[in-house]
Amino acid sequence: MPTPRLTLHQVRAATETAVAKLLDGAGDVVDPDKRIDALSALVKAGITKAFPAVPAAVLTYLGGTSAAMLEEKLGGVVRVQNFKDAVGELATWIVSSVEAFASGDAAAESAAVSGKAVELFKEMLSDSAKAILAQSGDKDFAVDIQNIILAFAGRVLLRKADIRFERGHRYGLIGQNGTGKTTLLNRLAAKDITGFPTELRTFYIRHEVLCDDGVVVKDFLKLHAPSEKGMKDFEDVLEYVELPMEHRTAEVRAAAAALTSGPDFNHPPSAHLHTPPTLPFPPHLLGTTT
Q1: 135-160 pLDDT, tens per residue?
Q2: Nearest one of 107, 194, 183 to 147, comparing CA atoms
Q3: How far is CA 21 from CA 17, 30, 75, 267, in A?
Q4: What angle do CA 38, 41, 46 make, to 5 degrees?
Q5: Mean pLDDT of the chain
Q6: Contacts of 80 (CB under 8 A, 6+ apart)
Q7: DSSP code at position 250
Q8: What's residue 264's pLDDT?
Q9: What is the mean pLDDT of residues 88-112?
Q10: Torsion angle, CA of 105/107/110/116, rounded to 10 degrees?
């Protein structure tokens, strides 16, 4: 059966619908051209006032390149440190172009122009970006991914979502069945989210233990540990995690069932994120040294 031909009106309507959905998923939208024009004008005005001898061509060049530099540095993920760094980086760039025409302190004047440009950028952020910046303060985030879309099997699970994990904190994931909790944990564990810091080590602790029948706990550790590790190392690990003595020589499946049967151990799957200096388990298990 031939595919029906769409009219121009139907194509236009479908295109407008698709664009609307994309914009809705993208969050608050700021016109980058408008921001670049405003930044360029501010930088040119500031340089003209501070360094009257700078030629018009240099002013135009500095205005455009400074605005583009800030857009590239600050136009993506909103991070407090990026805004702090941008002031110095832009000031260095301005100094390199105007010092030949300066009669006074080029560094101080350039820093003043740079600071005003960064403040203007902040003022022109979207409302959601301003909120993120205001809430960040001096917090140290191990993971800071903003405005993501997470989909699975053709279904959008998260839209316009921010994932921000501050170092030294624990977070719980709460939601109804089918809303994507396990999918999100899997994606975090696999670092399969754009912007996820690759230097972090991730550990995904699941409900079930993937193990054949008849394998005892120590043999299971031996299967998954570095080849140079021996029984003494495994004993140290089991002592470190305070595994009851009666479970240390038991089959893995039996020990797992016993440990998860009580109310204090019936936890859902969890993901652990660690930077290299922080080990969630002793070195014996990871094959590393502190």
Answers
A1: 887 787 888 887 778 777 777 777 77
A2: 194
A3: 6, 16, 22, 37
A4: 125
A5: 79
A6: 133, 136, 137, 138
A7: S
A8: 42
A9: 91
A10: -110
Q: Does pTM top 0.85 for this prediction?
A: no
Provide, for the chain, the percentages of residues in helix, strand and coil under a 3-state DSSP scheme, each rounded to the nearest 5. 50, 10, 35
The DSSP result for 206-237, as a single string, is -SS----TT-BHHHHHHHHS-TT--HHHHHHH
Find the DSSP H helices in 27-76: 32-50, 56-74
Helix or strand (DSSP H, E) at 128: helix 127-136
User: Amino acid identity, residue 133?
Assistant: L
**250 Cβ neighbours under 8 A, 6+ residues apart:** 216, 217, 258
State the virtual CA torsion across 16, 17, 18, 20 in degrees, nearest 10: 80
Q: Among residues 88, 130, 96, 133, which one has the least CA distance to residue 113?
A: 88
**Sign, Cα dihedral of 89, 91, 93, 95:** negative
- The neighbouring-strand residues paired with 204 are 271
**Burial class for 94, CB neighbours closer than 10 Å (0-12, 13-18, 19+):** buried
Dist CA 134 CA 80 (whole Å): 9
Q: What is the rounded distance in angstroms from the CA atom of residue 236 to the CA atom of residue 287?
A: 13
Unique residue bearing structure tokens 């799957």:
269
Cα separation values, 38 from 1, 95, 103, 285, Å: 56, 21, 27, 56
pLDDT, one tens digit per residue, over 155-194 is 777 777 888 888 888 888 888 887 888 888 888 888 888 8
For the chain, what is the radius of gyration of the CA atoms? 28
Question: What is the 3-state secondary structure of 137-189?
Answer: CCCCEEEEEEEEEEEECCEEEEEEEEEEEECCCCCCCCCCCCCCHHHHHHHHH
Structure tokens at 18: 């698709």
Structure tokens at 68: 């583009």
